[in-house]
């Protein structure tokens, strides 16, 4: 099974494994400032995955990579939202 993230601001859709925790990522990234570098978002996400994978079997390297990819995609979506709001073009 898969899920697809669809942008409201022009990003290409991102199709992921259904196990990628996109709701948790949206919540986490909703609290992350848009100026936070991608490298920090990736590091933080990988640290969370490391904690989770200790108690939840099934976290493969591919699932971890897709989760990081989703986090970066969602972070970019938040940046695009911020730009849209600040542009006053709405």
Short structural description:
The chain is mainly alpha-helical and 90 residues long. It is 60% helix and 9% strand. The protein has helices at residues 22-30, 38-55, 61-87; strands at 2-5, 14-17.
Keywords:
90 residues; mainly alpha; 3 helices; 2 strands; 9% strand
Q: How far from one another are the termini?
A: 36 Å
- Rounded radius of gyration (Å): 14 Å
The coarse overall form would be globular
Number of DSSP E strands: 2
Content of β-strand:
5-15%
Helix proportion: 55-70%
Spatial strand arrangement across the major sheet: 1-2
Mean pLDDT across every amino acid position: 95
Unreliable runs, pLDDT <50, ≥5 residues?
none
The SS-based structural class is mainly alpha
Helix and strand element order: EEHHH
Biggest sheet overview:
2 strands, antiparallel
Supply the number of helical segments.
3
Describe the structure.
This protein is mainly α. It is 60% helix and 9% strand. The protein is built from three helices and two strands; from the N terminus they run ββααα. It has helices at residues 22-30, 38-55, 61-87, and strands at residues 2-5, 14-17. It has a two-stranded antiparallel ribbon with strand order 1-2. It is globular and about 45 Å long.
């Amino acid at each position: 099974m898969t899920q697809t993230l669809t942008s409201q601001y022009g990003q290409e859709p991102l199709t992921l494994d259904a196990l990628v925790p996109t709701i948790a990522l949206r919540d986490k990234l909703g609290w992350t400032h848009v100026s936070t570098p991608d490298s920090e978002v990736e590091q933080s996400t990988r640290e969370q995955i490391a904690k989770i994978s200790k108690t939840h079997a099934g976290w493969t390297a591919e699932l971890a990579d897709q989760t990081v990819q989703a986090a970066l995609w969602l972070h970019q979506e938040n940046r695009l939202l911020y730009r849209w709001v600040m542009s006053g073009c709405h």
